[in-house]
Design goal:
DNA-binding, single chain, OB fold (Dihydrolipoamide Acetyltransferase, E2P), ssDNA-bd, 1 helix, two-stranded antiparallel ribbon, NA-bd_OB-fold, 155 residues, five-stranded mixed barrel
């Protein structure tokens, strides 16, 4: 099967919309992906063009998107690229959608807490309090020294 698989790194641009359909759970949100490049004249990083994708998630992934993501979150999305062209009001419009296979927070730009979900859980709109694995000043980068962490409640 010839499908175009992509990995996009960007920010959640719209609040995810979760729906329970006859075929199962579905969620969608817009993803903003901005390229960055080094400008030698300014001697600084500069933002390039921003592309927007509509990300679609189904079943358990949709349920987890509904409870885990909010506007502004840095995420990585992997999935099938679908480019659609349609005619609206006598004009051709092209959109790029990603049928997501995997979505996760981009940990190069922050931390995240992970919690396994049961299939019966339904997403809520309120943020949930999850444990935050706090790193203290005495910790080193050695993973062996970080094995015994105590969760700290985020308020």
């Amino acid at each position: 099967m010839n499908e175009t698989m992509v990995t996009a790194v960007g920010n959640v641009a719209t609040q995810p919309v979760y729906r329970e359909l006859a075929s199962g759970a579905s969620a969608r949100f817009r993803l903003a992906v901005t390229s960055r490049y080094w400008d030698r004249e300014k001697n600084a990083w500069t933002d390039g063009h921003t592309n927007f994708f509509t990300v679609w998630a189904n079943r358990q992934l949709a349920m987890n998107v509904g409870t885990s993501l909010s506007v502004g979150d840095p995420v990585m999305v992997q999935g099938r690229l679908k480019v659609r062209t349609e005619v609206r009001e006598s004009q051709n419009r092209t959109s790029a959608d990603i049928d997501a296979v995997a979505i996760g927070h981009d940990l190069t730009r922050g931390t995240s807490a992970f919690k396994r979900t049961n299939r019966a859980e339904v997403p809520t709109t309120s943020p949930q309090t999850e444990p935050n694995w706090e790193i203290t000043a005495g910790d080193s980068a050695d993973p062996a020294s970080q094995e015994q962490r105590e969760p700290v409640a985020v308020t």
